[in-house]
Amino acid sequence: MKKILVVCGNGLGSSFIVEMNVKNVLGQLGVEAEVSHTDLTTAKTEKADLYLGSKDLIAVLDDGTRTVVGLTNILDQNELKSALEKHIL
């Protein structure tokens, strides 16, 4: 099963909202995945198949070994769906 990690600065509000949206979109796509949210510091030590977050924040996780997707608008369901279709399906 794929693991998706939603990342924000503190690992609280915005990442939790995006986590719920990811689960909703995955349900619509009929895809099962483990989805969780965390803060940026913790994300650096966690393994995942996909890291999602706002473009300005998530870029620091892109070390060439991770699949990192920076979202322009973290609340845009269409952008989120496109990212998941591209990297999870």
Automatic annotation (TrEMBL):
InterPro entries according to UniProt: PTS_EIIB-like_sf, PTS_EIIB_2, PTS_EIIB_2/3
Key words of the record: Sugar transport, Transferase, Transport
Keyword Transport attached: yes
All copies of domain PTS EIIB type-2, residue ranges: 2-89
CDD domains: PTS_IIB_ascorbate
Top-level division of the source organism's lineage: Bacteria
Entries under SUPFAM superfamilies matching the protein: PTS system IIB component-like (SSF52794)
Pfam families reported in the protein's UniProt record: PTS_IIB (PF02302)
Gene3D superfamilies per UniProt: 3.40.50.2300
Protein's recorded name: PTS sugar transporter subunit IIB
Organism: Neobacillus sedimentimangrovi
Organism ancestry: Bacteria, Bacillati, Bacillota, Bacilli, Bacillales
